[in-house]
Amino acid sequence: MKRRTFLGLSSAATAAALAGCGTSNKTTTSSDLSTLIVMAPVLDVQAPSKDGLLQKAIQEYAGRTLDITWVPNANYTDRLTVTLAGNQLPHLMVVTSKSPTFVRSALAGAFWDLTDTLKAYPNLVAANPDITKNASVNGKSFGVFRLRDPMRTSVTYRNDWLTKLGLQLPKTTDDLYEVAKAFKSLSGGAIIIPKFNGYGNGSPFDIIETWFGAPNGWGERGGKLVPSFDTDEYLEADRWIKKLVDEKLINADFATMDPTKWNDPFVQGKGGIILDTFSRTTQIYGLFKALDATDYGRSVDFTGNLAGPHGMHSYPTIGYNGFIAVSKQSVKTAADLDTVLKFLDTMSAKKGQVLENNGIEGTSFTVDGSYAVFTKGGDADVVNNDVKSFAQLGTNPNGNLYYVTKPANATEQAVYERRLKTQEGDMTSAVQNPANALVSDTYMSKGAQLDQIIGDARLKYFAGQFTQDQYTAEIKRWHTEGGDQVIKEMNELYVK
Hints:
Elements: H1 11-21, E1 35-42, H2 53-62, E2 65-72, H3 76-85, E3 92-95, H4 100-108, H5 129-135, E4 144-147, E5 153-158, H6 159-165, H7 173-187, H8 204-211, E6 218-221, E7 224-227, H9 232-246, H10 264-268, E8 273-277, H11 278-291, E9 300-303, E10 320-326, H12 334-348, H13 350-357, E11 365-368, E12 371-374, H14 379-390, E13 404-405, H15 410-427, H16 441-462, H17 468-495
Parallel strand pairs: 1-2, 1-3, 12-13
Antiparallel strand pairs: 3-10, 4-10, 5-8, 5-9, 6-7, 11-12
Helix pairs in contact: 1-3, 1-4, 2-13, 8-9, 16-17
């Protein structure tokens, strides 16, 4: 759940974006797009070979040759900026966030506005319109979003400790407090939180503030948008968090602990509660399974979101992880755009999703009911490796139609089914951020610094380095150093 990266846009990039508009879409004749040029991130060490079995299978299914530039994920944002500043944009680009670089290019005309176009392609019509809105730039869709779980929040517990203490899984924040106190008396540690810089990056603090009824980043109060930290519920939540810190129910090194070591104290018995996502829960189950393949299910348990003092308010995701944008420089006409969108539509049908996310049936996996059972050795290993990369090209706005990996045993089957039920239930109380679709000019230029003001002040308040008056003084500084202008711009966009 990485924070957004804010980058400036060079004058060259702006010029290139403007050049991409031109008058090229006046003609409707189609170009030869038998080969589609694509740029995408690769998360694995080994990028797929263009002659690999999976790429060949995808090309045969879609009827298009793919010329893919795979860029290491760590360098992808920088490469995107450089590419936008040049004059050789690929037909399709994976865009990982609404960074200023992309937004300014899109608004200048570098990418096709698909707002009114996608409805003609059934597999590109979003099953959840909230996600379409979240992924838009002030209401305009400049790409096909890449679907991700809209609800991921999970709290993971040492179930063996709950059993020993005769306690039940918490349902409320009050329950969580009582369990944390009991865990500390048993082991000396309770809630584990690593270092989170800034604000609004999906940290446990953001989750708890939402549980207490604060807006998720931004919310409507009196008909106007306000940032979360301007609400009473936000400060109420932070006073509660500080109470936990003061009572040593949160690890003392929460401001400096390496996030890559988040699981270690849990496994080592130095803490027994983690607020994060279901991915974290799955990781921890796996770690305990490695220690005891028979009884690991007794050691770990989880809940979803918890009810706060003002009722149930669940912390959702934005529901997408970037999008695939279509260049107007390379895809020049409406007919060309139709060709490209038909390709994306084909790949978002079930067979396309299966190829991108499961691989080749009979080679890398077999089907068991609604699950995929993956095979190993030879070609299967190569295809399974390539799937990690081709999944980055999957959009799936129509919902995930590919096969889920078959749980290894009854324990994991039960965990998976309860996870789905929990996510479904939490979505009924999800607190959406109405500002997700809005892009403020001032926030694009100053957002990183403004977020840091709040993030730093919050950590200092929790650590006892700031009084609450000093904390609120920093919130006022946020307003004077550009925040008031952000609020003004956000509300002007919200009205539109």
